[in-house]
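User: I'm new to structure prediction. If I give you an amino acid sequence, what do you actually give back? Let's try with this one:
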Amino acid sequence: MTPEEVENTEQAEESPEVVELEALRAENEELIDTLQRVKADFDNYRKRAARDQESLVARAGERIVKELLPILDDLERALEAAEQHEEAKLEDGVQLVHRQLEQLLEKEGLALVETDGQFDPHVHEALLTQPSDAEEGSVIEVLQKGYRLGDRVLRPARVVVAGPKEEPSGDSS
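Assistant: Good question. You get back a string of structure tokens that encode the predicted 3D arrangement of the chain. For your 173 residues, that looks like this:
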């Protein structure tokens, strides 16, 4: 037998284990290639999602600023009235600006924190407790309004809470 014939017979007589090993290697390379493609697709998706999020935030900020511009214009008019010592126009202008700003913020979902009734540590910040005829633990004065945006408290209401009633001192010594 010539060396070529020996080689051909060896190739023809490859064992099933060798064939299976080669098939597994080919499958492994194919899976690695697929995995690399999926990883690249995911990286691209992640980058695209981050860009979209940044764009959305920028547009949301742009929209709110655009809605604030007429309020800024009215405030400038009120300041011009103040320079001309037109107090009545100044007061009307400031009230107009306040009303417009309040309406815009309400439209965006801003709401006042309720301060009627009992103290709630989730939405109120107690700055003082005072003896009072009101029920102990109830809010008796609001020092600074609190606000919610949807379900989230942006700023708790700063309040004075009713403490125990003052007992008259009965010292007779």
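You can read the tokens as a compact description of the fold. Here is one thing that stands out. The helical segments are 3-12, 16-83, 87-107.
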